[in-house]
From TrEMBL:
Ranges of biased composition (kind: Basic and acidic residues): 22-33
Organism whose genome encodes this protein: Hymenobacter ruricola
Domain CSD, chain residue ranges per copy: 88-150
Name used for this protein in its record: Cold shock domain-containing protein
Entries under PANTHER family matching the protein: COLD SHOCK DOMAIN CONTAINING PROTEINS
CDD domains linked to this entry: CSP_CDS
Domain of life: Bacteria
Amino acid sequence: MGRSQETFGKKDNEKKRAKKKTEKEERKAERQANAKSGAALEEMFAYVDENGNITSTPPDPTKKRVIKDEEIQISVRKQEDREPEDTLRTGTVSFFNTSKGYGFIRDSQTQESIFVHANGLGGITIGENDKVTFEVEMGPKGPNAVRVRMAGATPPPAPAAPAAE
């Protein structure tokens, strides 16, 4: 007769598989023994107390408050509720690359550096260390300076509204 094809590695792997299977069956039996399938409905309830914490005890009926639907606010405040910020700022041009058309203005109040693009200049030419006034708008990558004017220069007149017919 020929020799058995079973090797030590195969026997070892088979023992490991059998051990895993028995451990799995033991864990299953333990879960079934500890399961609360017959628990009362009241034991499964969870309550929220007056501070918003989850608890297993029901709330005290004497602490009950009535809240009107109109008092509940789910969203952020409306834009008109906020105080308007000072939109016109002053600053100094800290860097401007005329060939690429962008630079940075250092705000005189907050000392933060604000990006400025040639499109926000309105046709004027600025250079480093020029004093300017500008407005800030949020761009896709952060605050951008727009409607930039030289400090002390008069603002251009607003475009006339078309006449109603």
